[in-house]
Amino acid sequence: MTRVGLVVNPVAGIGGPAGLKGSDGPEVQRAALARGATPRAGERAALAVRTLRAARPDVEIVAAPGPMGEDVLVGEASTATVTTAVTTAADTRAAVHALRDVGLLLFAGGDGTARDVLDAVRELGGQAPPVLGIPAGVKVYSGCFALSPAAAGLLAAEDHDEYAEAEVVDLDEELYRQGRVSPRLYGTLTVPAARHRLSGRKASTPPGSAEAIAREVVARMEPGTRYVLGPGATTQQVGRHLGLATTLLGVDVVEDGALVAADVTERDLYDLAEGAVVVLSAIGGQGFVLGRGNQQISPRVLGRTKDLLVLATQQKLAALNGRPLLVDTGEEETDSRLSGHVRVITGYRESVIYRMECT
Length: 359
Fold this sequence. Notes:
Elements: E1 3-8, H1 26-34, H2 41-55, E2 60-63, H3 70-75, H4 89-98, E3 104-109, H5 111-124, E4 131-135, H6 149-157, E5 163-170, H7 173-177, E6 184-192, H8 211-220, E7 226-229, H9 233-241, E8 252-255, E9 258-261, H10 266-272, E10 277-281, E11 288-290, H11 299-302, E12 307-311, H12 314-319, E13 325-327, H13 332-338, E14 340-347, E15 350-358
Parallel strand pairs: 1-2, 1-3, 3-4, 7-10, 10-12, 11-13, 12-14, 13-15
Antiparallel strand pairs: 5-6, 7-8, 8-9, 14-15
């Protein structure tokens, strides 16, 4: 691989810390900025580029103009330029067309960006290069993404003889914000065949399997301690056992059986998290505990908390086939601190010790 292309969606993921469950559309992006969110897609793309160049100094990287790639290459030695530039799906498609002659196309974004890349690949027909996603969005359910920016860089540095088809899925963000999760398969993209460095597609939790876990979490709750409940059906079941109307896809804070705050932003959570216990469920099929859909629980928020409870059914753990649970907060020090063997609550009075790693 001597020539790699780079396309960045500069505002991908900005809605996550703001509690907006996505970043699609200029109105959502403006709302995220008003809530104190900062774009990080360029920073994550820069990490992938640095990793790629460290492994393959001879590689040629060509990028889309300005904040869609070139700014990342200029700033990669330190940190990428933070930008709030607004780009469109048409811009992404045009960038893919312009870089169609590369050996591999890296794109930084989320599932919405993956859809735009897929549209461009279909327009190009047989002229499209293989691609690989750098995870930078709020929801990263598609299987065409590397586990992390560093994994994307390492994978791009390798010579590949085999390629595979990876699914592109996305959600209707408006329905998603209403708690209606309905992933739709849009098609597949050709990616390097390296299962150990790809995130895989998200899998759902079987109905009813969360109730026993929720009972155990509630039984462990201590008076005078705040609990931060992350997104997901399992953590929402914890709220139901407390008799509270917590959100399915947001982050909520409870204490002594009462709802302290619902659907909080990262900024709000920082003020509430001192001495709190964070309760998170693993994403089925992928194994992510942090960094996918729960960006409100940032490294600085985690620095104020006292403990982390990880939840997963036995079926979810078995489906990982020995692969670890994963954390990807975007801060190496935090990810390293959270790595190791953790106790995972799998049912009422049931738990196992399982390995958790940074990506």
